[in-house]
């Protein structure tokens, strides 16, 4: 009887682990989207990658959103890299400037915009920073072998998958 109970418990645990892993893979699957406005002909492309984990987990990467939207009759498109992460407390609320290196060379953003949110169930904070770039600087990302960035004093590197997604978005608009 004990063996049967232990076997049943082990199966339930393994099934739960399999479901967790399946959910994680589905959430972390990158999503690419490209559209053309049928009235203006303006193109939009975006790539998003979310990371599965809780806000207590250390060293969880930022979620990423890369988006480029053509703005007809304007010199500069909307070129945005958005990074966000949930935490148990504010990390970048008072210091959310970013610095960027493309293959070791600095690129200065047009602007950084902080979008702080307080969430409940459980209580946590979401820090999102939208970073805008010029057309010329965005095109530099499309040729990059390595992209590094800094939020306040914390340094990060885009993964190969993230860099590939960024290039896909840029090439969709600027080809």
UniProtKB/TrEMBL annotation:
Extent of the signal sequence: 1-20
UniProt keyword terms in alphabetical order: Signal
Name listed for the protein in its UniProt record: Lipoprotein
Lineage: Bacteria, Pseudomonadati, Pseudomonadota, Gammaproteobacteria, Pasteurellales
